[in-house]
Each structure stands twice: as structure tokens, then as C-alpha cells.
Automatic annotation (TrEMBL):
Transmembrane segments: 98-116
Lineage: Eukaryota, Viridiplantae, Streptophyta, Embryophyta, Tracheophyta
Database matches in InterPro entries: BET1_SNARE, T_SNARE_dom
Domain T-SNARE coiled-coil homology: 27-89
PROSITE patterns in UniProt: T_SNARE
One Gene Ontology term from the biological process aspect of the record: protein transport
Family named by the database record: Belongs to the BET1 family.
Annotated coiled-coil segments of the chain: none
Keywords (A to Z) from UniProt: Coiled coil, Endoplasmic reticulum, Golgi apparatus, Membrane, Protein transport, Transmembrane, Transmembrane helix, Transport
Subcellular location: Endoplasmic reticulum membrane; Golgi apparatus membrane
Membrane topology per record: Single-pass type IV membrane protein
Protein name, per record: Bet1-like SNARE 1-1
Domain of life: Eukaryota
Record's keyword annotation contains Membrane: yes
């Protein structure tokens, strides 16, 4: 909320075509030019800090996305290895029997577990 106010304040006093249009160049004195320059310098510094913060945030997000991509690649490798092992187990008739037996014991165990709870 505070940054919204400061962003809104950043552009206060700026009209189309530049900083406050005056009717005559004689009305602008040196002190008002200095104040306008200071105001512009403050706004430039604010924008510079803001863009630096945005750049840092983008870099952090890119690093996080790279880590997530690497993690996904490694888990994909592990999962494909597991699937290959299951394929070799199910290719043989005895492997299918063993898998059926393990699944039956697991189902029986879960049934007894939930019945005793």
C-alpha cells in the first residue's frame, strides 16, 4: 500500500509534455528550476531502486525455476527407472503372480487395519 502511494507521488506534478507548463519563460526563476531538478532527481533515484528490486526479484525467480526444473528432471529419471523395473516384473508369469500376491496381502492388511480402528 505504501509503495502505491509513493508510486502515485512519483508522477505528481507531471503534465503532458513535460514538467508543469508555464505560460512564459520569464516566470521560471532559478530556484523553481532547482526544486524541479531535485524533484526529478528524487523520482529518478526511486525508479532506479525500483528497477533494481525488480531485477533482483526476477533473478531469484529464475533461479528457483531452474532448481525446480532440475528437480523435475531427476524425479523423471527415478520414475522411469521404477517403471522399467515394474515392466520387467510383469513380463514374466511368476512376476505377475508375485505382484498379485503382494497386492492381496496389502489389501488384506489395510482391511484389517481399518476394521480394528
Amino acid at each position: 500500500m505504501n509503495s502505491r502511494r509513493s508510486r502515485a507521488a512519483l508522477f505528481d506534478g507531471i503534465e503532458e509534455g513535460g514538467v508543469r507548463a508555464y505560460s512564459s519563460s520569464h516566470e521560471i526563476d532559478e530556484s523553481s528550476n532547482d526544486r524541479a531538478m531535485e524533484g526529478l532527481q528524487d523520482r529518478v533515484n526511486f525508479l532506479k531502486r525500483l528497477t533494481g528490486d525488480i531485477h533482483e526479484e526476477v533473478q531469484n525467480h529464475n533461479q528457483m525455476l531452474n532448481r525446480m526444473g532440475n528437480d523435475m528432471d531427476s524425479s523423471r529419471g527415478i520414475l522411469s527407472g521404477t517403471v522399467d523395473r515394474f515392466k520387467t516384473v510383469f513380463e514374466t508369469k511368476s512376476g505377475r503372480r508375485m505382484a498379485t500376491l503382494v497386492a492381496s496381502f496389502l489389501a488384506l492388511f489395510l482391511l484389517i487395519y481399518y476394521m480394528t480402528r
